[in-house]
Write a structure and sequence with these properties.
Blueprint (H helix, E strand, L loop, with lengths): L4 H23 L1 H27 L7 H60 L5 H19 L1 H42 L1 H9 L7 H28 L1
Length: 235
């Protein structure tokens, strides 16, 4: 039995709306990166929030308040772990970087001395034609050195342009990352309301199927995100 004209029009409308949404998301994919991080963090933190909420006293008397307190406790634990990781990683990394920078001039001097020694050792054994070729190469290098100022200015001009573009993107990213904790808090606190509001967009006869699909997606995506994070932590 073929589809009626009304159902065909609805399907075509849904496909068109989905295509427009995908196209708009593609255009603003850079700005969506913080929200993707927020969704990933939500999947990671939600089980912990549920555990804290279950053991939190007074959850039956103040169910709405207990969810917010649980999220605040998880946020506090996450901040403590992040600060601890930074204190463990940054000081040794800074010390090693400082040591490398202090020894860098010695490495450069040793490399120059080695090259000069090789040049003196093998210069007499190089045939004249090859020596002429090397002379031409050295002349070209000399020209580059003489015009190094113009080359550097040209490169610097392009580099500054790229830096300006990168600065704009970085500023947008920083603003987005500032919004991430608020976005994650909202998803953790009102996750069920967000899902219900999304389901209400669809017709009543399709809502049961949408709920079923969302449950499958939630299990699959949640398991995938947690597995990837666990694998990254182990590796």
């Amino acid at each position: 039995m073929g589809l009626s004209l009304e159902k065909s029009a609805k399907i075509a409308l849904y496909i068109f709306i989905a295509a427009v949404v995908v196209f708009v998301l593609y255009l603003v994919k850079g700005a969506l990166f913080p929200f993707v991080i927020g969704i990933v963090l939500t999947y990671l933190l939600y089980p912990i929030v549920r555990i804290v909420e279950k053991v939190l006293p007074g959850k039956t008397l103040y169910p709405k308040l207990s969810r917010g307190i649980s999220i605040a406790i998880v946020y506090l634990l996450a901040i403590i772990l992040l600060i601890g990781a930074i204190l463990l990683i940054v000081p040794p990394l800074f010390a090693q970087s400082t040591e490398l920078i202090s020894k860098l001039p010695v490495f450069v001097t040793e490399a120059i001395n080695s090259v000069e020694g090789w040049n003196k050792e093998y210069s007499n054994s190089i045939p004249e034609p090859l020596r002429s070729e090397i002379g031409g190469i050295l002349a070209a290098i000399g020209w580059i050195i003489d015009n190094l100022g113009n080359i550097v200015l040209s490169y610097l001009h392009g580099f500054l342009g790229r830096v300006a573009v990168a600065a704009v993107h970085a500023f947008t990213l920083v603003i987005g990352l500032i919004v991430v904790p608020i976005f994650v808090f909202y998803l953790l606190k009102d996750r069920e309301k967000v899902r219900e509001s999304f389901v209400d967009i669809f017709p009543a006869d399709s809502q049961i199927h949408v709920v079923y699909v969302l449950r499958i997606l939630n299990r699959v995506v949640g398991a995938y995100v947690r597995a990837q994070v666990t694998l990254a932590a182990v590796v």
